[in-house]
Amino acid sequence: MRLVILLFSSILLLTIVEVKAQIDSVCIQTAKQSLVWLKDGESNKLYENYDKVVAEKLSAETTAAIWTQIESQMGAFVEVDTLVTNTASGNLIVEQVLEFENSFLKYRLSFNQDNLIEGIFFIPYRTAEAAAESTKIFEETKCSFISDGIEFPAILCTPKRQKTKAIIILVHGSGPNDMDETIGPNKIFKQIANKLAAYGIASLRYHKRSYLAQQGLISEKLKTDIDHIVVNDAIAAAEFLSRIDSLEHIPRVIVGHSLGGHMAPRIALKSSSVDAIVMLAANARPLEDLVLEQYKYLLKKDGCEKSERKEYCAIRKKVKNVKKLERDLAKGKIAELPLTNDTTFWLSLNKYKPLISINNLQMPILILQGERDYQVSDADFELWFNNSKKSASKDQTFIQYQGLNHLFIMGEGESYPEEYNLKAEISDIMIKDIADWINSIWDSSYGENKLERGVIHIRKAK
């Protein structure tokens, strides 16, 4: 990397020019396309976008050689991590954080008023995650626990600079999720674990049972009722933590996302090792109702074609089949169901009543919802809130975040699946709220800083 920096120190130019308005979209597109040219060995096309001064100092061949040198030191180019723009001395600056196999690099282009490249920079860069690890805010230790005779690989994340005040058990959403709950390029659970460590909160995350089965790590046939898919393993994880001497008397909190949040009340009711629960984007309504609602929402994006209307009608019929599944099975009838035709899974979900379960809990409960979440909507959040008025326990806290999607990542406008493929950071405000809430339960010094229970708090998540 040092060689790259020295090489560029003689050719990076940034000249003050007469201030005129660039066409931002043209510059941004050129910046994005330049990576394709570099990766594909077409540096001559990038060269054509240099202004006269840069073109005289940096040939297409030299540009290609520099890119080859970077990949030889940092490994193959993987993807663009982030892209940001700003202005300096009348120029538009486009910065992209590039991920390589072994490290990251900031790639900066300066465009003049003619939309030509007047400066090109490759700068060493560390991601926030890498910076956190280097400053030793937390320590991650591999471990495992047994549930139903199956070994679950896990990671225990503990704060390094302060005493552990509480520990969370992260419970996945639907589907075969790994321990990081990797969705697109985003590792939701890893981010939550690492960020909470800064507040003195430890965490345990583990591969979901269906993920282990998908990877061929479970030899026996997978039991597919909701207890075996979600609940039992979360309980086993909590009990595993209670047997670790250094964590024996540390409060344990279930933090469930989506389906994991939906099942959090059941987990807490069935476990004596859970002291509180946090429900992230948790559905209060039946899963099949959400499937139909999501399908209808996505169809509105580009208009509804005739074939899609037929598909919607088919989905609606499958949802109705879930509602009458028990009666149909009693008659020996097997009908098509949404998502999966696994009747064991759907029957177990039908029997679970989350609104009743949560009202039977005598522990602190935190329920968080993103305003832009189309997978689990405001309707669910309002159901949880209205239901809390019937609960014997009044220790329920509700927070809704403006601008956050189902992954608690900031965005604008309506949310769609495509944005899950963009690498981003989950909301730091949401993380701080979780930390403050957890710490306030067992720390009397929080006093007036405790969020009022039984009301909805609205947050502007930046």
Question: What are the main properties of this structure?
Answer:
462 residues, alpha/beta, Nuclear Transport Factor 2, Chain: A, Rossmann fold, 2 domains, nine-stranded mixed sheet, four-stranded antiparallel sheet, 17 helices, 39% helix, disordered N terminus
Explain this structure to me?
With 462 residues, the chain is α/β, with parallel strands linked by helices. The protein folds into two domains: 2-125, Roll (Nuclear Transport Factor 2, Chain: A); 131-290 and 335-460, Alpha/Beta hydrolase fold, catalytic domain (Rossmann fold), CATH 3.40.50. Helices cover 39% and strands 23% of the residues. The chain contains 17 helices and 15 strands. Strands 5-6-10-7-11-12-13-14-15 form a nine-stranded mixed sheet, with helices on both faces. It has a four-stranded antiparallel sheet with strand order 1-2-3-4. Strand 11, helix 10 and strand 12 form a beta-alpha-beta unit. Helix 9 crosses helix 10 and helix 11 runs antiparallel to helix 12 (306-323). Mean pLDDT is 88; it is low at 1-20.
